[in-house]
Amino acid sequence: MGGASAPGxxxxxxxxxxxPHFPVxxxxxxxxxxxxxxxxxxxxxxxxxxxxxMSCQHCVKAVTKTxxxxxxxxxxxxxxxxxxxxFEEAQPVDLETLREKIKKAxxxxx
Length: 110
Hints:
- This protein has two helices and nine strands.
- By secondary structure, it is an alpha+beta fold.
- Strands 2, 3, 6, 7, 8 and 9 form a six-stranded antiparallel sheet that branches. A three-stranded antiparallel sheet has the order 1-4-5, with no helix packed on it.
- Strand 7 (73-79) and strand 8 (84-89) form a beta hairpin.
- The longest helix is centred in the middle third of the chain and has 12 residues, at 57-68.
């Protein structure tokens, strides 16, 4: 656990899970500042999605640019060999929005 916290508060860093048969996995760390039992602040969630149709570095750049332009998406990393794109979700992003934007760019989520 990092850094000093105000009295009565602590930071908890957790979470790496995958939902079977769902094209998005949640990896990395979710940092939560815990205060009262009914308050929590989530700073960012790392997500990974499968991208079909990429074959070269131009594809990587196109997918990176497309995802980076979506509000709430930041720190995009695309792995051509794995056919995946990972990013931090600073605010909730609808999976259908991701699908539509990726499809417009010429690729497919899944």
